[in-house]
Amino acid sequence: MQSRYRYLLRLVLFVSDLLLINTAFAASYFLTVSKSIDIYGNDTYRNAFLICNLIWLFASSVVGMYRSSSLDDLIGIYRATWRSVVVHGAILIAYLAFSKNIDISRGFVISLYGLYTLFFLISRFAGTVLEFIITRRYRIGRPVAVLGRNSTSLRLAGMLEKSQSYKFEGFLEDEDTLFVGDNGDLVPAACKEIARAATLGVQEVYVSLTPDRMSAARALLDEAEKQCVRLKFVPDLSGSLTAPFSVSYIGDFPVISLRHEPLENVDNRFKKRMFDILFSSMVIIFVLSWLVPLLAILIKLESPGPIFFKQLRSGRNNLPFWCFKFRSMHVNNDSDKVQAKKGDSRITKIGAFLRKTSLDEFPQFFNVLIGDMSIVGPRPHMLKHTEQYSAIIDRYMVRQFLKPGITGWAQVNGFRGETKDQVLMEKRVEHDIWYMENWSSMLDVKVIFMTVINIFKGEENAG
After folding, report:
1. Could you give the CA distance from residue 98 to residue 275 in angstroms, rounded to a whole number?
2. Which end of the chain is more exposed for a tag (fewer CB within 10 A), N or C?
3. Residue 102: alpha-carbon gap to chain centroid
4. Contacts of 88 (CB under 8 A, 6+ apart)
5. 312-322 pLDDT, tens digit each
6. CB 197 within 8 A of CB 172
7. 164 touches 140 (CB < 8 A)
8. How far is CA 244 from the centre of its chain?
9. Bridge-partner residues for 61, per DSSP?
10. Are 296 and 279 in contact (CB under 8 A)?
11. Spatial contact of 354 and 254, defined as CB atoms under 8 Å apart
């Protein structure tokens, strides 16, 4: 439940950020364009002023700047802030590059983002100090307590202690005892502890119950409401389910998922897709526009055949799609059957260079743009390999829940290229599943940087 303080923080942060970005815009205009802040007297900068505000609303929405989850701790606020600025900068620069709005000076853009950085640093630092003073001086958190001790209630207590939305008053019962006697009535100790909670001013009491003890919920709730205390129940499934799990709802029905998948969240999928579109578009426009004609000549000069090689590969949800590459081999009939090996005689000289530098994968940015692939994800395998390995490797098909990627967590950790034995494929699958369960925007950025570093270092398995 969101506290009034947290709601007020969202509102204040939103309003102050709008004031901040507009002040930065006016200051940059004054410093680099005109010794005046009369932006509306200049049509070009008046339009840019409106665009900057719209982009900020979009960027902050995409990264969840003002969501409650982003405001749970200071680290979340700082992370969401700099992500919003980066997205804002990328969109504004793309807008200026593709529009005819050439009257916006580079000095203005540099000054604008320099002031954004400075103002946000000052704003967030001041906010940190202010929040520290408020939390120390006032009781802004909702007073809560936990009744009973078990593994789930201990983890819950740890979370409540760290949250700034709650003021954890401790446990009401030192042991995980039975709250209801054989006759169906609450035991005196439970009644006493609930009454003590009311005396302490506790507004909410959390009780963790195993499924076989949920029958006690009604009696506990009735007693708590007599004392004007809200009672919340947290199901303790730790004894029944050994794997980590999450609970969601379909209507009124709780649904338990035993696998954590951040990309099942539509907001996360939207952020990843927007990044894929922006990144792939930039590569296609600024790299492939001149790289394709150049490599086309070199590929054609060495061997007859098409410039591009396309192959059916396994995509998201195991649906096949045409995966594109620059052709790195002589035309042959075994490309869909036999995996390329290091030193393969089918590989041309220019093909060896393309594979070594990973340039052969660049046409897959077209796959990303049309939505068959992502920049980062499990590498797509030939249909034959999917059929082969799914029969002998546990959880192999789990990796097919995601869109395949041009690069991936497995590849930057050394599991790239030819898979000579089953153990190597098992390691690749293990890394792909880890990526799926731990996805974040920053993890994608990390994989991209590691990929670039590996390209310049040279990869042993890239042949």
Report:
1. 18
2. N
3. 35
4. 52, 55, 56, 59, 116
5. 999 999 999 99
6. yes
7. yes
8. 19
9. none
10. no
11. no
One-letter amino acid of 423 = V
Query: Tokens in use for 160?
Result: 């409540």
Q: What angle do CA 163, 168, 169 make, to 5 degrees?
A: 170
pLDDT band at 323 (very low <50, low <70, confident <90, very high): very high
Is residue 82 within 8 A of residue 70, CB to CB? The reply is no
- What does residue 112 show for φ and ψ, rounded to 5 degrees? -60, -50
Residue 248: exposure state from Cβ atoms within 10 A (0-12, 13-18, ≥19): exposed
Letter string b/e over residues 331-346, b meaning 16 or more CB atoms within 10 A of that residue's CB: eeeebeeeebeeebee
Q: Which helix (H) or strand (E) holds 254?
A: strand 253-257
Greatest alpha-carbon pair distance for the chain in Å reads 90
- Residues 29 and 46: their CA atoms lie apart, in Å, by 10
The vertex-278 CA angle with 272 and 282, nearest 5°, equals 140
Structure token pair of residue 70: 């982003």
- Comparing C-alpha atoms, which of 173, 176, 165, 146 is closest to residue 238? 176
> Is residue 175 within 8 Å of 202, Cβ to Cβ?
no
User: 427-458: per-residue pLDDT in tens?
Assistant: 999 999 999 999 998 899 999 999 988 888 76
| Calpha distance 432→426 (Å, rounded) | 10
Query: Are the C-beta atoms of residues 383 and 319 closer than 8 Å to each other?
Result: no
Give me the sign of the Cα torsion angle 132, 137, 140, 145.
Answer: positive
Q: Which two tokens stand for residue 376?
A: 């980062």
What is the pTM assigned to this prediction?
A: 0.63
Calculate the CA 280 to chain-centre distance.
Answer: 18
pLDDT tens digits along 112-140: 999 999 999 998 888 777 766 766 666 56
Match 């000579």 to its residue by tokens: 420
**Other C-beta atoms within 10 Å of 20: how many?**
17
Query: What are 391's two structure tokens?
Result: 């029969």
Write out the H or E segment, with its range, that includes residue 227.
none
Residue for token digits 């098409």?
Answer: 306
Work out the angle between the directed axes of helices 217-226 and 188-199 (0-180°, nearest 10): 40
Please enumerate in sequence order all residues whose Cβ is within 8 A of that of 429, keeping only pairs 6 or more positions apart, or say none: 389, 393, 395, 396, 398, 399, 410
